[in-house]
Design a protein that fits this description.
single chain; alpha/beta; TIM Barrel; 8 helices; 8 strands
């Protein structure tokens, strides 16, 4: 199966956000990946509801919203109203993870869990069968353009094994440092969705770069 490609809008040109979104509409991108940062869970701040609603006004593809925030349960419904199709929360930020997953699903959105590089996927054992997506961070979250963490390959394998044991149908998403060099092995190990930010938006031809990632088998 060909991978799903989710360009990260965080790496786009914010001064020309409408044209960047329209470019993604024309491309082979499957989703738009939206990173929400609060300056508390991660040492950076991105954007909030007004910008997300503006993106939604032009986007013709599903919005994959990644909440890098504390207390995400306070904002789930608001992000759904702003256009989120998938909402991923960090396992490290959720005291009552199962409850938050059910809260996301109650809005009609797909539920995802994001996992930092240092966090064991075994902690997902009791909730993996209830989610639609697991986002493995292959860099430390907060900033784009970071170097890919090689341990991610082993982590995908461990997650796949856990999913088989628990009969989970979740998609595995990889976020951070994805490029044409590591994408083939990521897919071989079991990844389904590739998030690419700087690699796409810094390329000379983003539409072709997306097409090249999409063509990897």
């Amino acid at each position: 199966m060909r991978p799903l490609i989710a360009p990260s809008v965080l790496a786009s040109d914010f001064a020309n956000l409408q044209s960047e979104v329209e470019m993604l509409n024309k491309s082979q991108a499957d989703w738009l990946h939206i990173d929400i940062m609060d300056g508390r869970f991660v040492p950076n701040i991105s954007f909030g509801f007004p910008v997300m609603e503006s993106i939604k006004g032009h986007a013709q593809k599903p919005m994959d919203v990644h909440l890098m925030i504390v207390e995400p349960e306070l904002y789930i419904e608001k992000f759904r109203e702003a256009g989120a199709d998938t909402i991923s929360v960090h396992i490290e930020a959720c005291t009552h993870l199962h409850r938050t997953v059910q809260q996301i699903k109650a809005t009609g959105a797909k539920a995802g869990i994001a996992v930092n590089p240092h966090t064991s996927v075994q902690l997902l054992e009791d909730v993996i069968a209830d989610v639609d997506l697991v986002c493995l961070m292959s860099v430390n979250p907060g900033f784009g353009g970071q170097k890919f963490i090689e341990n991610t390959y082993r982590k995908i394998e461990a997650l796949k094994n856990l999913m088989v044991q628990r009969n989970s149908q979740a998609l595995i998403e990889i976020d951070g440092g994805v490029n044409q060099n590591n994408a083939p092995l990521l897919l071989e190990k079991g990844a389904d969705v590739l998030v690419a930010g700087s690699f796409v938006f810094s390329s000379a031809d983003p539409i072709q770069t997306i097409a090249d990632l999409k063509s990897i088998k």
